[in-house]
Design goal:
This protein is mainly α. Helix content is 65%, strand content 0%. The longest helix is centred in the middle third of the chain and has 32 residues, at 146-177. It is elongated, with a radius of gyration of 29 Å.
Amino acid sequence: MSEVLFNFHDVILLMTAMQCLFFAVLLLATNSHRQVSTYFLAAFLFAHAFIPLHELILWGAEFKLKVRDFWPQLYFLGGFAYYLDGVLLFFCVKSLIFRDFALRRRDLLHLLPLALFLLYMVAVFYRLPGAERMVLIRSEEFVYGWDYVLVEFLCKCLRVAYCLWCLSLILKYKSLLKSTHSNIEKVDITWVKTLVWGFLLVMVMEVILSVSKLASLYQHYDLEVFENIGLTGYYTLFVLINLLVFTGIRYFASFEGVRQRDSGRRPAGEQMLNPALAEEIDGAMRRDKPYLQPDITLDILAAHLAMPARDLSMVINRHFGINFYEFINRYRIDEACRLLRSAGGRDKTITDIYLEIGFNSKSVFNTFFKKIVGMTPSQYRQSDTVPELSGVRLVAAD
């Protein structure tokens, strides 16, 4: 006689778990560049595989009954993953954005919620005799108890907080990119934002479910709406895992990471301004015109000037009062003005000129030009009077 262990929703949970495990192994096997972010992504997927299994053991239609009869020791073991997937997603995004990211001892604090959860489970469940644990499992008294529901709610809120933390890093990324890159328009971060927003949506759904469980402790009502939210989360997660892996394989290796800013106090010698060095850099910029390279970065310019990138960044910030992005593009605008007024540049189109001086985007060129010159490139070319340009100038010392 045939027996049905899984309904369709259970199959989705099982497939999600298998996907996570398979893709985690695949990412580890194909990580030829040994990217830290890929290791964290694989760890995230491995940890996340236990979540659908945990849900299946607790709420599977017929499967949960078989687990109670034959493998009761599996109950709640997958619950630890809820305290790891948010942390690992955060480290994945952080190591993707910051190419010099490295784990520090203080990062162990992220494991504190997991440690507290394990202590809680030992205190209220695992220390009990096996017979008492089986009564709690079969009656489902434990999973609907106020303390377990509250702990579950706090855990789900923590995961949402990690997703919001990931989004804050992504939002800061483009401003950080301006300190090292001259063209940021071609850097596409839509894919990583979409993925994090997707996981945030699923985790918010789980928070709503936890709130409904808390409310049901005081008032009984129809939970069908919340069950549908939970099922929607299952299917959304199934799609997200596929997107996460395929985008990870495609985009992670080519992602333009930035360096983390030094939060520590610099040595006293570095606090001093050096106008002579700033003027030397300005002279080299006007003489050699390295800004004409479309994809010039801080590292490339530092190598050209034979000085450390950190020192160059400090000079640009302190002596010119702007970031690297504006620093390079102001020289480009100066060059554009010269070409627009020169005899050789009069026959060139605006497109020819902005491409020649290193811009990749017409809209960015027009925005910069109008900000610095006060008029559009076409108006500048046709005007009888040449406005005074702000250009790239040294700022006064403090």
